[in-house]
User: Fold this.
Amino acid sequence: MFAYYLRLALGSFRRNPGLTALMVFAIALGISVCMITLTSFRAASQNPAGDRAGILFAPSIDSWDPNDGYDSPQTDADTGRPVAPTMLTYRDARALYASNIPDRKVIMYKAGGIFSRNDKGMEPEYISTRMTTADFFAMFDVPFLYGGPWDAKADAGPDPVVVLSKESNQKAFAGQNSIGKTVMWHDREFRVVGVLDDFEPVPKFFDVSNGSFNDMEGAYIPFSWGQVLELGSDGNTNCWKTETIGSYLDFLNSECIFFHGWFELRTAGQQRAFRELLDNYVTEQKKHGRFPRPLNNYLYDVGGWMKRNKVVDDDNKAMVIMAFAFLAVCLVNTVGLLLAKFLNAAPASGVRRALGASRRDIFWQHLTESGVVALAGGIVGGLLGMAGIWAMRAWYGQFIDQVPRILPFDPMTFVIVVSIAVCAGVIAGLYPAWRIGRAAPASYLKVQ
Amino acid sequence: MLSMNNVSKVFRTDLIETHALRNFSLDVKAGEFLAVTGPSGSGKTTFLNIAGLLEPYESGSYKLDDIEVTSLSDDARSRLRNEKIGFIFQSFNLMPDLNVFDNVDVPLRYRRMKSAERNQRITNALEIVGLAARMKHVPAQLSGGQQQRVAIARAIAGDPKLVMADEPTGNLDSLMARQVMELLERINEMGTTIIMVTHDPELARRAHRNVQVVDGQISDFKPYEPHAPPAALATGTAPRSGATVEP
Assistant:
């Protein structure tokens, strides 16, 4: 009977093309808005750390101004306490890095420098660079096209080694295997030990302070080169204390924050021990006159870290709610249109009842029609949504690279929104289909 | 075939109650051709709707083909209606967007018949009414008489035991009316019981038996008596002399 109901539905659409188009458009409009908003929301909220999200932790220790808390008056959603800074001072980063509790540990910051080949095979170019320790690559599951990461010994040196992004390798070596070759960075020679494959976590969760959706760096160089070359941050640097900074060393020893620390803590025991380490460290530092605020440390996993940094801000969540509210309005309109359409066809249903259709038959016939309208609305809405995403890409493409990576045409989103449309359309059709199924057939037979 | 005992039906609004049928009792034998007459608003159509299981009633009992229908569910009533009753309406009630074939197909679909059997039945029914060549036409392409013949084909395609016709010639001119009436008589001759509501005394006279409904009750039984058909309906075919006559 389903095939028969489908045939009847298509016949009904041919009979009332205007009304049908109106219903399809109403659903399509709601669905397309949902699709665009969902794509934007998913881009902002996806977990790029995968199944490692629960074992990677970022510390947040309250080194800030005693009179004006960091991000005041924001409080932590779980504890209700004031939040703490999301970056570390150099001293604190180094101190935590010295811990043996984590399985892996990374301290890093964003810098930059003029990059070229030492044989003048390319035009010098300024590239953003991540100054990091060796575990970065293993901790964040970074894929390599050629070679691999440097080791802890190179960190300690620091050895003049560099890992290039795929794009930088393309520029310098036309994408060829460049392992062992040298490049110039900050007028020094660095030996290429690795070339990354595509590595574009979205959002860029390990450094949200410098833009959750910013492009990845073009090169990765051992952390200690930052101090050797006296490099400041190429991203955010936040300070609260009035200090006399006469040298780079003064700057490193100041209360200015621009370093990130990530620690791989696989067991609950390690996590507990690292929390104790944070508290003990701060308590110890207080004795030296640092950390004037009350003890207020956090250790965030990836999900908590993104929440803390409002990677998905409240506006984005509100937009999703608004989009679904708009869809609901569209569906309410569709219910009204379906009801009008079905009641208009009530005499035909009366005849069908007289010819042996049960209420159930009439109900399913009309529910099928609702489902087909919703399916059409979903497909049209999906296409409209894709057009909307294309428009967003074009707009954001003016300001940032890699927009397709951030706003993908995700086939799964299309499937999801069409499924939502069908479910919603069927739900919208329940009442009209039930109403027409309950109509007394005899009352329509004389007026058909 | 059909047995109603003291069936009552009341239509209610906030202000008034209208007794459409009052203690209505009627027996119709299998193979009978019954004409139901009466003035407008007398309850003829209400009787037909109740007899056709399209409308519930307040009290009394009703047996259709020895099945007590009072307490049947909607599904069971629909199934019974589909299998045992064919309907013919004054205004044909064909689906305008379906062609002749698909219109006749409607009741068979609800019987969940296989395609081959449906095709066979539709073809047979359309041959009986003389419209086998018009299968692909839509109702708008047919005359009124042809449309009513399609409706008759639809009513008999499922091989029902009972055909209920509500003013089947009411919207037709005399020539068309005569053809439709002849068709009903032929169907009756094949063994199908027919109950026909009509205002037309000439048509009523061609039935085996007449009942007149007044104020929701049967006021008069008019047994069929053989006679020459009126000029408008004369076909050259004599009425059946061997028809069963009920008192």
User: Anything to note?
Assistant: The mean pLDDT of chain A is 88. Chain A touches chain B through 25 residues (CB under 8 Å). The two ends of chain A are 24 Å apart (CA to CA).
